[in-house]
Task: inverse folding
């Protein structure tokens, strides 16, 4: 009798161990599948937002050339989203409905591009479509729903695709999840390559000595007269020769880099404790204007400023002396203390590198022909921006607004009237 009890107990233990082993295996697979579907849903949601943004741009214009790129984007993105939906574990009815809907959007964009459908009809229909796409994107933003719970993802998506009792399906999905999570990723560029700079060969100034550099540093930053200053030269394999200055005075400590040719200020960083007081925006503008003049960067204009709890972050761009166009690629970034306006940081690398600007014709632009009738032009100025070939092109920088869609900043080539960039403002 004892022998039978021992056998039954052994079998029971084996069964319990096997049960918990299978359960643990299933839980691991649920986690893997939840991650896989989580990523797929996130990707699909992001693509829907991009598709909606591209549709917004087709509502901006009525000019055929200006519409070419956004219509192409709508056609391409609608295809991308359909591919994402086909990979999701949705029920066939829902999947089919959305696949057909996106197919109509893509085909419609293609027909408008070919001149087979009037742009007015497209813009009328797409006003509702963009809202539908954003609504679907919100539904799929599962990370904000049920707090991104794994149980919600499993119950809503995993169990919708697989039957837990069907081991073959579990195994197939398990292999898929393993392939997904173990796929190889391309190696990123090394930090050295990412930080590689231009060689600054265009600087024709004579080289300055370390002592001359020290005197210029004190001239630019008289508050550090009497500070402990240590100067070193760049290494032989540096992309360009420069001086690195370390300084320390009282509660302030910092660093600065200057080109060896001409002693141009490249970067500056200073640290100290901060008070709770704050200067006004007008005081900020006066302070930064003074700094830019003292560093001989007066040929610039402030283009952006924002704040955090301790500092203002300001961006300047060089102005072309010929036409006052902003050259965004020749930028300078400043960090200014919020309590008293003291300079905390500066990066003038882009400004020192200096873009080579080619002459370009400025042809008048008829905004009534370019934009649809429900958009109004709020601001206009000239600016240099990169095109697809990374060439600096003179462009009309136009701020245009529509009450239902929002505000866009658009860059239009002054010579070809090509749309170089279009961005929606928050």
Result:
């Amino acid at each position: 009798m004892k022998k039978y009890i021992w056998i039954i107990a052994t079998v029971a233990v084996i069964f319990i161990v096997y049960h918990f082993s299978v359960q643990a295996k299933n839980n691991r697979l649920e986690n893997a599948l939840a991650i896989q579907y989580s990523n797929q849903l996130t990707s699909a949601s992001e693509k829907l937002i991009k598709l909606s943004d591209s549709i917004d741009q087709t509502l901006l214009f009525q000019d055929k050339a200006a519409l070419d790129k956004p219509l192409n984007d709508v056609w391409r993105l609608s295809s991308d989203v359909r591919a994402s939906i086909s990979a999701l574990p949705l029920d066939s009815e829902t999947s089919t409905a959305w696949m057909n809907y996106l197919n109509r959007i893509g085909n419609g964009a293609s027909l408008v591009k070919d001149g087979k459908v009037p742009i007015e009809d497209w813009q009328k229909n797409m006003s509702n479509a963009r809202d539908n796409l954003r609504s679907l994107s919100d539904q799929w933003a599962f990370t904000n729903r049920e707090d991104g719970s794994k149980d919600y993802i499993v119950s809503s998506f995993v169990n919708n695709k697989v039957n837990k009792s069907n081991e073959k399906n579990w195994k197939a999905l398990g292999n898929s999840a393993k392939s997904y999570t173990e796929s190889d990723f391309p190696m990123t560029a090394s930090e050295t390559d990412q930080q590689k700079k231009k060689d600054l060969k265009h600087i024709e100034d004579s080289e300055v000595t370390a002592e001359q550099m020290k005197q210029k540093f004190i001239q630019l930053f008289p508050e550090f007269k009497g500070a402990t200053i240590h100067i070193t030269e760049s290494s032989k394999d540096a992309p360009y020769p420069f001086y690195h200055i370390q300084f320390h005075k009282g509660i302030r400590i910092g660093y600065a880099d200057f080109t060896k040719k001409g002693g141009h200020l490249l970067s500056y960083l200073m640290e100290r404790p901060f008070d709770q007081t704050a200067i006004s925006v007008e005081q900020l503008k006066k302070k930064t204007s003074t700094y830019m003049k003292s560093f001989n960067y007066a040929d610039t204009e402030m283009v952006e400023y924002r704040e955090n709890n301790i500092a203002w972050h300001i961006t300047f761009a060089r102005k072309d002396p010929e036409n006052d166009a902003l050259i965004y690629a020749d930028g300078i970034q400043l960090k200014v203390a919020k309590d008293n306006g003291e300079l905390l940081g500066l990066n003038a690398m882009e400004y020192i590198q200096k873009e080579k600007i080619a002459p370009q014709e400025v042809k008048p632009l008829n905004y009534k022909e370019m934009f649809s009738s429900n958009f109004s032009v709020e601001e206009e100025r000239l600016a240099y921006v990169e095109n697809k070939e990374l060439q600096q092109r003179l462009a009309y920088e136009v701020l245009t607004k529509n009450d239902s869609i929002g505000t866009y900043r658009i860059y239009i080539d002054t010579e070809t009237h090509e749309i170089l960039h279009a961005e929606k403002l928050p």
